[in-house]
Amino acid sequence: MSRNLKLFIILLGVFIFGTLIGWIVGLLDPNLAEHAYMVLRKLLGGNKLPEGFELFILIFLNNVRVATIIAFGGIILGIVPFLVLLFNGIVVGIVISYTASRGVPGSKILLSIIPHGIVEIPAFIIAGIGGINWFLEVVKGEGELENRFKRGFKIMLRFLILAISLLFIAALIEAFITPKLAGIS
């Protein structure tokens, strides 16, 4: 199994673990889940999110920012991708727990997450793989440190470009398809 596939599986596991933690925290402390949910809503612009193209731009730019942090953060001991994916998983778990506690049917919750999530989550993982590969090239690569740094940076950029391309698709799905499928448009 290639290093990139191993990293993909590990990072996906970290995200899923974070989701489980968030879900359990939401079950154990509904007040915390509600507070976290309200903070997220406020960060995303309050009670009413934009629609259509404005929503697409908001989602895409936010996700590009997160993917860039993940990829560039990989140089910091390779740890930032793990932390960001864990945190994002926790957020997803809390949102799932909170919305379920408010009586939202499970099918609607899944339709609110899965259509774009099947593209968005792998995109974040790919950005993470790029960042971790940059770190590993610097630490384990051959040649002078400057050359290893540059090689690793180029590797990271290729992964980040792929991730951003996928995030473009995910944002289109999240802005234009997910709301219709989930009945939230």
UniProtKB/TrEMBL annotation:
Recorded superkingdom: Archaea
Signal peptide: none
Residue ranges crossing the lipid bilayer per the database entry: 7-28, 55-75, 82-101, 113-136, 157-177
Keyword terms: Membrane, Transmembrane, Transmembrane helix
InterPro entries: SpoIIM-like
Pfam families on file: SpoIIM
Name listed for the protein in its UniProt record: Stage II sporulation protein M
